[in-house]
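Internal QA ticket QA-208
Title: Verify multi-chain structure generation after dependency bump
Assignee: T.L.

Test input:
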Amino acid sequence: MEHTYQYSWIIPFIPLPVPILLGVGLLLFPTATKNLRRIWTFLSIFLLSIVMLFSLYLFIQQIFISCIHQNVWSWTINNEFSFEFGYFIDPLTSIMSILITTVGILVLIYSDNYMSHDQGYLRFFAYMGFFNTSMLGLVTSSNLIQVYFFWELVGMCSYLLIGFWFTRPIAANACQKAFVTNRVGDFGLLLGILGLYWITGSFEFQDLFEIFNNLILNNRVNLLFLTLCAFLLFVGPIAKSAQFPLHVWLPDAMEGPTPISALIHAATMVAAGIFLVARLLPLFIVIPSIMYIISLIGIITVLLGATLALAQKDIKRGLAYSTMSQLGYMMLALGMGSYQSALFHLITHAYSKALLFLGSGSIIHSMEAIVGYSPDKSQNMILMGGLTKHVPITKTSFLVGTLSLCGIPPLACFWSKDEILNDSLLFSPIFAIIAFSTAGLTAFYMFRIYLLTFEGHLNTYFINYSGKKSSSFYSISLWGKEEEKKLNRNFGLVPLLTMNNTKRASFFGNKTYKISNNVRNKTFITVENFGLNTRTFYYPHESDNTILFPMLVLLLFTLFIGAIGIPFNQEVIDFDILSKLLTPSINLLHKNSQNFVDWYEFFKNATFSVSIALFGIFLAYCLYKPFYSSLLNLTLLNSFQKWSSKRIRWEKLINFLYNWSYNRGYIDAFFKTSLTESIRRLAKQTNSFDKRIIDGITNGVGITSFFVGEVTKYIGGSRISSYLFFYLSYVLIFLMILFFFYFEKF
Amino acid sequence: MNDFPWLTMIVVFPISAGSLMLFLPHRGNKVNKWYTICICILELLLTTYAFCYNFKIDDPLIQLSEDYKWINFFDFYWRLGIDGLSIGTILLTGFITTLATLAAFPVTRDSRLFHFLMLAMYSGQIGLFSSRDLLLFFIMWELELIPVYLLLSMWGGKKRLYSATKFILYTAGSSLFLLIGVLGISLYGSNEPTLNLELLANQSYPITLEILFYIGFLIAFAVKSPIIPLHTWLPDTHGEAHYSTCMLLAGILLKMGAYGLVRINMELLPHAHSMFSPLLMVVGTIQIIYAASTSPGQRNLKKRIAYSSVSHMGFIIIGISSITDPGLNGAILQIISHGFIGAALFFLAGTSYDRIRLVYLDEMGGMAISIPKIFTMFTILSMASLALPGMSGFVAELIVFFGIITSQKYFLISKILIIFVMAIGMILTPIYLLSMSRQMFYGYKLINVKNFSFFDSGPRELFLSISILLPIIGIGIYPDFVLSLAIDKVESILSNYFYG
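Actual output:
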């Protein structure tokens, strides 16, 4: 099937027409473009499905004949330097492209409804299309320059999408923070690429690995420099995948619309770092120290992310820290050299986390109608609670996602996480302890989120009733005052998606009222004024089918995607799609032929990890069990507290943990004071240097010449007497000098 | 057809047509505007036509050359000709000047003079880029200054007289050095002055003399480029000038310095250049960092962009001083690319200033709601300016980086250091560009401005920014458009260094 591969360069270009046409259309013919809004969505979904089918086809091909296809075209024609563009199809690429397209399609479908009221609906789809293009370009790229090219482009898309609601000052800061932090990573990446080019003289992956290995074998290169280059290369993934020192942008990135958080900041773009490390693993693996650094950073991130997720109020931030922690697991696996489990976890985590984010988006969507459009309120878990009654389907899928992330057996993340945990046992006991305990933490914070959101009673009204009167609703609608929100949905293309029209209509009618209320900037009149029956309106509603459908599909993925990595015992030979795909790649830990899976070993480890997870869940239940029912557990809690005899110290510890987590580990504050302030100070100093010294010299020269001119003017004021005076005085001076010399000679 | 004096016509046409406007009776601003636009477009078409049919890319020698004796007694010729180095800049000049004239549509005060000055500048710039005679080069260099001075001092902002004086003192002072250099070079060695650049390129000098010449030319071009400590005229000038003038300044005028560095310092004085290049490299690196860290401290919007151009000129200096094929190619590409990007950024800053009437960044905010198109274009162009892949700036900077790596001249450690520091500039660039766009457009409310509803950019402004954007993206995706123009010329320049 050679000819199929020949056309695979087209993969990144298929989704490209939509953003280009949308961009041109929005700039030149805004009204016409906006009238066609639904068509653009369908077009982008359609194009992305074509890519999905194509990459599915490639994937099946790869299963049967696992081989690498590469083709390059020259980009610049020059004798001295030649950059090439091309594609590179191998199992990794095909897996990644399937992942991107499936999650991408589902998120597109989802965001059609999620963003339908937004003024930037089309802009959103343009950005999304561009993101899909550049992400697909990233995974199919054949050399490092191309990787860098698309690497920056996805960073830019992320910047644009985080700052999508640019009227929010927080979003404006967040997107700049994300871009600059990622730029630090790009800085390292570029330097690493250049350094590697200097060593090997090539950008192509294949050549690079070959030359590199030869150099190492023959020991013809300075190992320190090599390690430095490899480390700089690794800085790129650190920033992109939100690893320890450069993770600060990810939680802030949650200011973007929720579908974006699902697609970019959970499933695909943050996985790009993992992808790049996986792609370059043949290169990293020959330098043991860099592998150690990778795993170290991985484990730090695992722990940090998990501890920071413990006390987040914002549901999306909590999920973001959890993403960070899971990415740390992947990085850890890569650092340990277990390529396969890292990729497996990448896939399972992508689907589970996308599900969780879409679920949280659905929750936010239904909460927004009640508490207002401020992310401080609509995403605040403290105001939620008891949503099980109101949003049952969302609840189910969220629960499945949570369980999967906790590592409960039949679900996706269990299989992959278990593999990583097992490998960490083989790698180093300390890392294994941290990794296992973090699995418990994961279960704890995930269930904390779940319980706060869905169990108990809706807390919004508790807070309202408790006399605080904190119903200062976010009184400014997102896009400014003068324009009322466009609520008349474009029913030009109606019949396609109007299943529950009546319900929606009533729901929206209700919403209109609220929004216009907000827009007019009245203080929100308390609930009582509406009469009793209106209060029922103010309970969250289940989202539309368009939102639920992608979540259900992702639910299926979460349930069954684990299958690709589960070793099936078919007679004697192991059959496991993932390992079949990735066998040619490296496996550090399982050097001795591991043709059979030791089921006993597997069960032992699995029980251990599952029990840790269950312990975490249990703890979460104890602590965050809804208010009213906690009486039942009182005895248990009491015994628990009695058991912790040094209660004060315990509380201190808890307080410390809470503060640590709530203040994001003080890392943001540290960066803020150390970096941002110092850059500001530097700017001020150089500016004053520029003004005072460099410009000062120029101005000084100007002013002096001005004064000299003035003095000359004054002197040469065409007065004969002054001329005579100067003439005579100079003659006198001359005579005196002459006289002195004359005098001294004799 | 080949004997037709294309270049003379291209050089003389704008200024003569412009002076015609001064003598014709005054028929209102509109007539002047359209007349100037037509001349600009005609000139651009003429240039393109002449280059299309008479310029062969694969020939590194001078083409379309013309040679007329002008002043007999000291051997002064009207000598024009273009090669791969100058064709790009001439086309850039035509393009940017046409767009700048279009951008100057709102200017109503004394529009006859204004447009005449624009056209005079047009002639001067093309004359400079196409002159093959050293004295002619100098004359064109000086001819350029007067229109800029007048444009600045008559149509500028509040502090225009200060800036204009500063500008003229800096540049006129520096062209003194240029004159000294020109006379020195031409009078050396023979009784008859030689001013022909081709002859001069093969001449060699005693090393001390060469260094002296080099320093003289360097000072002249360093002011124009600008190279730090001599850059302070630039932010003031840019901060005060009308934005159409800014487009010309940032798009073309700064490039004259870089062009002169290649054309005279590299081509005529190769030994001194290879001696001075490490110093220039260090200066260029410092300049990138220095300007990029000065820029966030600026309150004035245009000054901030001006410092960003200073920072980007550092790449050109580094590329020129790396003395490698990629480095020089990258420098030429950066000349073209920054010509587009700088001009576009100034244009957008000017149009948004026209609406909000505030100069200081910390007073602005929340403009994105009312002017989304300008916001979009501004975002795209600041991305281009911070070297986003797919745009021209990225390719240029990448090739310059490449030039340093492949350079044989420097030691490993120094190369690593220089690349490292340059790359730090890569981190600083988004800080000032993005925070600028954040301060201008993001956010919600504006307290100081009462009437908070602006018109979004109309068709003219949209056309203008899109037509600058297209070549930026085009070069970014397929850089051979520009690289192929200069490639042979670059090789022939560099061959002096390897065999000489």
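Spot checks passed. Chain A has a mean pLDDT of 78.
Status: verified.
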